[in-house]
Amino acid sequence: MPVKFADRMSTVHRSFIREILKVTEDTSIISFAGGLPNPELFPVADLEAAAVGVFQDSGPQSLQYSTTEGYLPLREYIAARYKEKKGIDVSPDEILITSGSQQCLDLLGKVLLNAGDKVIIERPGYLGAIQSFSMFQADFITVDLEADGPNLAELEAALNQDKVKMFYAVTNFQNPSGLTYSAEKRAGVAKLMKGRDTLFIEDDPYGELRFRGESHPPVVRGYLDEGGILLGSFSKVAAPGFRLGWMVCGGEMRDKLIIAKQASDLHTSTFAQRVMHRYLTDNVLDDHIEKIKERYGKQRDVMVESIKKYFPAEVKITEPEGGMFLWATLPESLSAMDFFDEAIKNKVAFVPGRPFYVDDSGENTLRLNFSNSDEERIVEGIKRLGAGLKDFIAR
Length: 395
Ligand code: PMP
Prior knowledge:
Blueprint: H1 16-23, E1 30-31, H2 44-62, H3 72-86, E2 95-98, H4 101-112, E3 118-123, H5 127-134, E4 139-146, E5 149-150, H6 152-159, E6 164-169, H7 183-193, E7 199-203, E8 228-233, E9 245-248, H8 251-265, H9 270-282, H10 285-310, E10 316-317, E11 325-329, H11 336-345, E12 348-349, E13 351-352, E14 365-369, H12 375-394
Parallel strand pairs: 1-12, 3-4, 3-6, 6-7, 7-8
Antiparallel strand pairs: 2-9, 4-5, 8-9, 10-11, 11-14, 13-14
The structure holds 4'-deoxy-4'-aminopyridoxal-5'-phosphate.
């Protein structure tokens, strides 16, 4: 019997990246395709000790249903960290714990978007957000992401359109491009957003992974109570398998998000929240983040150096100061999709950039992940890609 699916399913597709990841399950392929943190850096023993401690000290409570808002001590930890690291005053009551920050995108879509509402996203943009908002039949307006942040003239024009519900942005070491908003662009965005009824959704899962250079306060600092919403995650600083993220927002918006979350999953895993909280209080997160930054920083350097050595000069790359990805742009006429098939023959993989563009542009771009391969494999993989690119360009 042919199933009559909901209209919303007609605009979404399986994640192209998940399809690629299937190809790269073959371990002989050096993969720069995934967006995975390095599992060697997961704090397994410390999390194990935290889990045992939670079972011993609060077994029944940790296995019981709990509140939709999330475990209060965990929210207090997050609020204290914002104060310490970013100078932002956030009340634990303004934090909603979610099942990964990906759930924030789904909940925001649920409470905000009617079919045909407009969402501004960066070009290229985070695929998970494109997928989430597409489920609510959003109409995307894209704003070019330049080396130092969004093109402000394009942003202003986009904001001046009707029915624009939100601007979704990844301001630090963006997925996919690795780009970060400069202080000037942050001020420019804040100025453009102020006083409008369009929400600014700032998604920042990578901000703490800065290897060098100065970090910037979030754009929403100073107007969190006026339509700024900040998303965070433990996925990149601790472990993604815990599925723990959060959203900072107050007032009626938070009430609506809580209703949507209740309808969706009642609450995020009580056990996961308590174990993460115990891990965070029994250990020093900054020490762990230092280890991640040291490793990713070296891997990023090796990737950039290898690209400079082995890639044809026509290929341009971003050189991020943090995060997990860098972005390459091939000469205009070339297709990274076509090159992907060639690369797989040479047993190396990346993600072609086109899925990160809602307007089918970006054919000549690609994303390279440096967090999840050791230095030796990075050199070898980039060497193979470089040799392949020289052939591909010469054809
Ligand atoms: N936002 C961005 C920009 C991401 O790159 C990711 C992870 N790929 C997420 C959100 C979702 O992360 P999580 O649900 O694991 O917190």
